[in-house]
Structures are given as C-alpha cells and as structure tokens.
Protein: alpha-1,2-Mannosidase
Organism: Vicia faba
Amino acid sequence: MARGSRSVSSSSKWRYCNPGYYLKRPKRLALLFIVFVSVSFVVWDRQTLVSEHQVEISELRKEMSDLQNLHLELFQLEELNNMHGGTVRKDDSKGTTSKSTKEVLNDPIDIERREKVKEAMLHAWSSYEKYAWGQDELMPQSKSGVNSFGGLGATLIDSLDTLYIMGLDEQFQKAREWVANSLDFNKDYDASVFETTIRVVGGLLSTYDLSGDKIFLDKARDIADRLLPAWNTPSGIPYNIINLSHGRAHNPGWTGGSSILADSGTEQLEFIALSQRTGDPKYQQKVENVITVLNKTFPDDGLLPIYINPHSGTTSYSSITFGAMGDSFYEYLLKVWVQGNKTSAVKLYRDMWEKSMKGLLSLVRKSTPSSFTYICEKNGGSLSDKMDELACFAPGMIALGSSGYGPEDSQKFMSLAEELAWTCYNFYQSTPTKLAGENYFFHSGQDMSVGTSWNILRPETVESLFYLWRLTGNKTYQEWGWNIFQAFEKNSRIESGYVGLKDVNSGIKDDMMQSFFLAETLKYLYLLFAPTSVIPLDEWVFNTEAHPLRIVTRDGGKPVKNSNEKQKPPRIGGRKEGRSG
C-alpha cells in the first residue's frame, strides 16, 4: 500500500477522540489548536462579512429615508415660500441654509410632530368653523358658540396668524373675508381693555405684519380708537373696562375702583406698533405715559402691587405676584426693549425690567425634598408658597432677557430659567392626566400639590419651552413640549374640538375651547418643532397672546412708519384671565 494512504484501525480512531492522547503529546495538541483557530477565524470572518454587509445595507436604507424626508421638508418649505413669500434664512457668507435650519430639516421626528400639531390646529379650527363661526369662542360639548368678548370674533382673530404661519391658506383666506366683510366693533358692550388689546389689536397687527394686507391694519386702528378713551384719567393710568360704542370707561367693582397692574401695563407693544405702522403718535403716547407715571415711584426691587389708583397713579396695598394680574406687566418691560431693537430710546424699559428681576430673585425658593425652584407671591412683608401656572411664562421671559446681562449674570439668569421650567413641566407631570392645574402650593418636605385643579388649555409652560429650545438648542425642551401636547390630545380632544378639564386629577371635561389655545398653545407647539428661521427672535417679538410683531428700531422715541406699506413683506410660509366652563 502506498505511503500516505495508510488505513486507520478502529482502535486508532478511538485514540484521536481521547483527550489523554493529546495531553501526552503536546505538539499534536498545539497543532490541533492551530487548526481549530484557523477554522473558527474563517467562520467568524464570513459571519463578520455578512454582518457588515447587513449594516451597510441598513445604513444605505437610512440614508435613503433621510434623503426622502429632506426632500419632503424642502418641498414643504418651498410650497410655504411660494404661498407666503418665505423667510428661510440664508447664511450670506456661504449662501447655504444655516446649520440650525439644516439640523431641523434632517430631523424627521420634528417634521412628523409639526404635522401632528398642524392637524390639531385644523381640528380645532374646523370645529370652530362648523359650530361657532364668527362668535368669540366654541363650546365643543354643546356644539355652539358663545360671545365671551362682546361678539368680536375673538377665536377667529386670535387664530389668523397661526393659520398664516402654518400655511393653512384656504382657512386663512376665509377668515380674512370675514374680517373684511363682517367684523364690526360698534357694539354696546363693556369690553376689557387688556383682553381686547392683546387678542384683537395684537392679532390684527400681527396678521398685517405677516401678510401686508391693509385691511388688518385698518381694523386694528378702528378698535384701538375705541379703546383710547380708557386712558383719559387724571394720572393717565387707564381704566380697565370701556364701552366700545359709547366710550364710557370704568374699573370693575371688585377692585374697589383700582386699575389692575397687568391690565394697565400690557398694551405697550400693540399701541407702539400701531403708531409705527400708521405714523400716528397718539397710541404710543398714551401707553408710554403709563410707564412714565409708574417709573416716578418705581421701587428699588422693581416689584409693584397689583392695584393702582387711576387718579393718583400710585399703587394700593395689595399682593405682589408674577401670576394673575401682575405677570405681563413685567413681560412687557422686557419686550418693549426687544421691540425697539434694544436702543437707547428704550433703555428705560430694560432698566426697569432688571430692577424687577432683582425683586423676582427675592421671591425664589426651593421645595423639599426635590429642590423644585418656584416663585412665591408676596403679601405685605410675608411670602406665600404659591405659584400660578400663569407664572410659567417667567422662564421664557428670563431666558429671553438673559442675553442683555454680562456673562456671569447672563448664565445665572439662564440657569434660573431652566430650573423654573423644570418646575413648570412637573406641574404637568405630577397629575394623573399629565396636565397642569391652575396653581400649586409648596409644603416643606412634600414638594408641590395642586391647588385650583382645573386646566383651561393654557400656553405658558409650552411658551417657555419654546424660548428655551430656541435660545439653548437643547432638544429636551422639545421632548417636554411633545409630552404636554400628547396629554392635551389624550384628555382634551373630542370630536367637536378641544376642551379644558374641570379637574386634572379626575379628567372631567369642561365645555370651552379658549381662543388662546389656537393663538398660543398650538402656535408655540408648532414653532417648537419648526426651523428657527420661522419667526426668528431677532426679527419678531411676541405679544402676551403669542402674536408676533416685527421689531422696528426706535430712534429717540419717534414713531417710525412701517415699511410694509411700501414693499412686499418677507412673509413666513398679562396673560389671560380665561374662564373655566
């Protein structure tokens, strides 16, 4: 038999399977190990090649998906630009879309969420259109309308700029026709100067700034002229209620004849803008005189009680709060400074606001055991550990104003804004429905507990999340906003619109779709997932009803006529006293 072809006996076969055979022959063991490793490597290498091939295919699929989403987003923006003139900002030095815009364009999650919010707006709007067209607000469960503000079409006017920004052109045009042909302010109705200013004057001016359509400016001037007699008081501090037909002004009986701080100090943005757009200084003069009067006795801590005597212009003994009846006064001190493009002509507003922020710091406390940062209310010399959800506008305001400080103070106030936003988010997260109550109390060792337990679709927390996301780029704020939106969808959406809750613990629904839900809550949620070039904060300032007004540089306090009348505008593809119902 040839060598190399030796047969192997059965006994020889067995010994190769016996471990002892190899232990006694280390060279053969080493050889076997080398063969085993080589075979294993070939198998592993083949598996690796297959795995890498699968990963490569997966990555290619993801790139295709990203490209499809990017194409969809660019198509949507182009469509929006074609419809409205568009302001997708370009980097002039490179001629490319800015980094932040590209990041959003490439994020399919933002695109999907923005569309979900837009669909929610369509649901709210179509319900209003079907059951309450032309009336102030919709009662969704009753499927009827109610004139909460004298029949001024509050929801319609409040929604105009939201429809425009979202590119809902068909709905916008129908609303525009109603404004042109049916809106009538000659009503024998005692209107709130504050509510009418922030919703109606603000809504019309914002829509004018966005669209360039003069019908909105004309209507804004009409209603503002009807409000002006409210400022005809001995001090210039306005009465808070006026009859739109007869011009008789007064204050509500429950204030004891006093004017309310927020109601008297939250018309500056709108009336200054109206003077700028019309060239008529009378509107600006009326509202700026209020600040002049208040500044005469403005305290070092910048904190004013909520009641002011309209005859003397001095404050009355009453509570100090960044919640209801105080809040938006402080907001407008900052925002008039922003509106005037931060020039010396508006420095007084910034100075007064910074004093108020020193006062706010004296009201800040932390809960135990979780260290939630909150803003107390002040009554005389004592503090109350209570914070309104309305005061949740403050994180956004503080963040917006932080850049006007030096580096150290800027960081301090931004950190405070973020801490307060965490507290406000937990107003929502701490209830069974994940919707916030109207106010909260803080107790030693027990953190927070809900006080007044209704939710009326308020926007303040999502407003602050919008500012913090825009100013920090931290997507955590988008996630918090999305969670709040989902809670609204789960608890407040019904077949005929959106309703508030009578109780955030039980989830029992009320029967009112507040106009600010469309004006503010849904707008801020939409912008939270939109490119930062949509309503950029260096070109627009939001009034307290979320109506964006163009920033116009102030020079020596003189009204500047708006350029919208001469050229095509570059268009975009306190707080509320809402009622529970």
